[in-house]
Amino acid sequence: MKYWRELFSTGYTNPKDHLPDITSSQSSMIVSLLSAGTFFGALFAAPMADYFGRRLAMILNTFVFCFGVILQTAATAIPLFVAGRFFAGLGVGLLSATIPLYQSETAPKWIRGTIVGAYQLAITFGLLLAAIVNNSTKNRNDTGCYRIPVAVQFAWAIILVAGMIVLPETPRFLIKQDRHEEAAKALARLRRIDVNDSAVIEELAEIQANHEFELRLGKASYWEIVRGSLGKRLATGMAVQALQQLAGVNFICMYYPWRRDLFLSQLLTIIVYYGTTFFQNSGIQNSFVITLITNIINVVSTFPGLYMVEKWGRRPLLMFGAVGMCVSQLIVAIVGTAASSAVANKVLIAFVCIYIFFFASSWGPVAWVVTGELYPLKARAKCLSITTATNWLLNWAIAYATPYMVNDGPGNANLQSKVFFIWGGFCFICAIFVYTCIYETKGLSLEQVDELYAKVPVAWKSVGFVPSVHYTDVRDVSESKAGNLADLEIDANEKRSGEHATHMESIAAKTEV
């Protein structure tokens, strides 16, 4: 924004328009500190969520975010604005790990994927609103040009805090804290049934038994979560979040030549925001309309994903998205490298939009669904904070590397359109990763996911898995065999069979008498 650049200038004059401006290094600092805030915020989310609870942690996280927004709104110079960026990023990082945690721990299994996937829907809807607000204020010749879009963020913070005041704590966290009566009330309220209903009693008993079984296997220190089965699941979650970024969503639409200052000022925005530069270079002058269209595509395309994640399952939807993104990226790479006509530009635009559809309906929402379901209760907060931090780290790294990969000049790779071969290659890796590493968790409770990983050795055999362990039965088996779930299940079944046989003998004896 012209007014912002002039107001925050420290003496530098842009040689292109001879107007006061900020330097590229200042712009980079402003952007990178928000990125640092999100990364560390995601890491700090685990101890906060485990200490304060998921619900209270989100309220506190929102106040951290609001503090950053206040600093940015009040700022008229770079130092205060930079401080605001960092604290706002810290709040975003904290919330980005805690919100999917709350969603996954409260949602019933039959709709959990849709609910957690709605997190991504909210992101895309927010991007659409942001594009509209930014465009509406960008030409103001006063501080309202940046204070209005920054201050609008207070509205969503108020909504979130108000909602968390009304909503209960997650039953699983309350069980973890041995607050069983509160857990029963919370679960009954979330399921909208009576606290004494058999469904509430059975679900709580299973959660409690599973938690006790987990604790018999050891505590969830940071050392423990990188070893064994937990380490495998943590690596899977980190890879899902990393590949979500490596699929090119933060890069696509940026490969044509752009101004470095424009790139740095928009460093951490996602695909639809970079659409402006892309479409301008494709010969379309009304870039805002096109950016608005790509935002709308992003929002609308998320809805099929929310339906298909429960209809198809996690593995098929991720595979569908990976193949679609790979084909779209390679077509953009080939056409962009081999042709430069008006027809070629239209092909590029078409396949960029197709790419948006495939990403928004699959890897966008489902990455959050998968990471929200992978981990046992004792380690869920820690693992989710690490996987979310991975997403933010790759988000920053890819965006920061963009000008060096694409632009010409000393020290730059000057790949231009050829860079899409790289992102297409990563999308191909996504498909292989889904087949070999993603377990199908559709229709399973969070406790049954533990059984899935204990019994199924490889991901491609997870489809059609039918859980058979009842942790309430396993809990009653001798702890001497607590290290092997399969053995415990056998013992539990034998115990039930023995009790049944004894009961039948008793009935037979009474009948004879």
Question: Which terms summarize this structure?
Answer:
mainly alpha; two-stranded antiparallel sheet; 513 residues
Helix count? Answer: 22
Described by strand count, sense and barrel closure, the largest sheet is: 2 strands, antiparallel
Global mean pLDDT:
83
Give the topology string: H per helix, E per strand: HEEHHHHHHHHHHHHHHHHHHHHH
Distance between the ends: 95 Å
Work out the helicity level: over 70%
Task: Describe the structure in your own words.
The radius of gyration is 26 Å and the shape is globular. The chain has a two-stranded antiparallel ribbon with strand order 1-2. By secondary structure, it is mostly helical. Helix 3 (54-74) runs antiparallel to helix 4, helix 15 (314-338) runs antiparallel to helix 17 and helix 16 (342-361) runs parallel beside helix 17 (363-373). The longest helix is centred in the first third of the chain and has 29 residues, at 24-52. The chain has helices at residues 2-7, 24-52, 54-74, 78-106, 112-137, 144-151, 153-166, 171-176, 180-191, 198-216, 228-249, 260-265, 271-281, 287-311, 314-338, 342-361, 363-373, 380-406, 419-437, 446-455, 471-474, 485-512; strands at residues 13-14, 19-20.
